[in-house]
Amino acid sequence: EWAADAQLLSANATSSAGTTYKPGEAGWRLQFYSAARESTALIAVSEGQVRVVRGAIAESAPEPLSAEGWLVDSPQVVETVLANGGQEFINSHGSASLTLTLSLVEQFQWQARLVDVETNEFLTMIIDPASGAGSVPQTPEGAQ
């Protein structure tokens, strides 16, 4: 146990191009903050193994948002993305990696990003962790 008072700040996982995009098959990176330690830790979870990748003194105390109402987990996020333009993106771009990020700092949201590994074109979707409602940000596909 890294810190008993640890609060989740973010979580992300990337599924490589050509995979089935099942979040349980991807390695996860979780960032936590401990007020007692005045530090953050990056924890990696992969193939049933958990390890602290790095810890750092926090220059300022982040204020994680409450995860109360968090009902939509990563499998539902993948389903939402694929059903709302993601499958078409994959079909038209051949191979794409998928990165899921749950943020609990500043905005409580899921972000899903499909990236064509050859052209770097991408599709990003923001999904509400409470309702599952998804939206595509104004940034046009492929913008850098």
Summarize the structure.
The chain is mainly beta. The chain contains 1 helix and 8 strands, in the order E-E-E-E-H-E-E-E-E. Strands 4-3-2-1-5-6-7-8 form an 8-stranded antiparallel beta sheet, covered by helices on one side.
Q: Would you write up a description of this structure?
A:
This protein has 1 helix and 8 strands. It is mainly β and 144 residues long. It has an 8-stranded antiparallel beta sheet with strand order 4-3-2-1-5-6-7-8, with helices on one face. Strand 3 (39-46) and strand 4 form a beta hairpin. It is globular, with a radius of gyration of 16 Å. The mean pLDDT is 87.
Q: How do the strands and helices of this protein lay out in sequence?
A:
Layout: E1 7-15, E2 28-34, E3 39-46, E4 49-57, H1 74-93, E5 96-105, E6 107-116, E7 122-127, E8 134-135
Antiparallel strand pairs: 1-2, 1-5, 2-3, 3-4, 5-6, 6-7, 7-8
